[in-house]
Here is the input.
Amino acid sequence: MRSSPGSKRSLQGLDWLNFCVADVQTGFGPFIAIYLTTQRWTDIAIGSVLSLGTLVAMASQLPAGALVDWMPSKRLAAALAIAAITASALLFVLMPTHFGIGLAEVMHGFASCMLNPAIAAVTISLVGSAALGERLGRNARYSSLGNGVAAAVMGGFGYYFAPGSVFWLTALLGIPSLFALSRIESRRVVRAHADAARPHRSTAAELRALFLDRRLLAFMACIVMFQMADAAMLPFVGSELAAKAGGIANLVIAACIVAPQAVVALMSPWVGRAAQRYGRRAVLLLGFGAEPVRGLLFGLISAPIPVVLIQSIDGISAAVIGVLLPLIAADIARERGHFNLIMGAIGLAVGLGATVSTAAAGAISSRIGDHAAFFALAGAGLIGTILVWFLMPETARDQVTATVPSDPR
Here is the structure.
C-alpha cells in the first residue's frame, strides 16, 4: 500500500527552497570578478582565489557527501550549508582581504557540496518513488527561475549601487531560503528509495563495492565527457562576441544566459516524467546528444542572434542533467545506500570534466583557433553520447513504496 505524498505545505516549501537557493548561489557567479576588480585586485590575484574555490569544491565533493550521509537530519545539513554560504557572502563585503576572500571561497565551496545533496535527500524523503522524477523536474524548474530572476536583480543592484551590494543581497536571500526550509514538515513524509536518504555506517568492503558499481562508474565516465564538452563553450562564445559584437556583446551574453534557463524551466518537469516512463538511458541520450550539435553549430556560426538560438540548445542538456543526475544517484542508492556520497562522487566527475574542458579548449584555441576549439568540444560531446549508448546501463527498476515515514529533519 502506498502512502500519500508529502503535505502540500512541505512541497510548496521545497519549491521555494529551490528558488531561493538558486538566488543565493547566483551571487557567487561572475559578480565575484567584477567586485574584486573594483577592490583593485589584480587579474592574477582574482584568478588565484577563484582557482582556490574550484579546488575546494572538487576536494569537498566526497567528504561533504559523506558528512550529509552521516547526519540523521538532512534539513539540518541544508540549513547549515545555507548559513555558511550566507556567512561567506558577508565576508566578501566585510573582509575584502586575501585572507577574508580566501576563507569565503573555502566556506562556499564546501557548503555548496553539502547543499545540493541535502536538498535532493529531502526531496527523496518527501515523495513516493513513482513521483520522484517529476518532482526533481519541478525542483529544476524553480531553480532555473531563481537563477534567471537573481541574475537580473543582482545585475541591476551592481549597476545602480556599489558592486558590493550584490553580496549584501546574497546574504539577505539566505533568510527566505531558511524560511522555505522551515516550511518542510519533519514528519508528514513518505518512504521513497528508503535506503537512499537514510544515514549509513558501512564497512570498507561495502564502500568498495559501491565505488566499483558498474552503473556509478559508467555514469561518472559519461559525465566527465559531458562536462568536457559543455563547460568551456559559453566562455569561448563570450570571447568571440567581445571581439566581434562590440557594444552589444554584454546584451548578447545576457541573452545567452537567460535563454537556456527558460528552456530548463519549461522542459524539466517533462524530463522527469519521461525518465519515469521511458527510462533514464533514453532521456540521457537526448541531453547528451544536444552537446555535439551545439558545439558544431558554434564552430560554424558566430553571428549574435543565431548564437543566442544555438545557446538555447544548452537548456535541453541542462534540464536532462539537472533531473537525471540525482535520479540516477537515487536509483543506485536504493540498493547500495549512501545517496549523498554517490552525489559527491558524481560531483567530483563534474568538476574533473569542467577543469579539463577549459584547459584543453584554451590550449587548442591558442594554437589553432576558436573554431577548432568548438569542434574539439563537439567531439567530446559525441564521445559522451556514444558512451551513454554503449556503456551506460538502465538504472530504473520496479520500485515499491513503503508506508513507513522517514524524517528529513
The two ends are 25 Å apart (CA to CA).
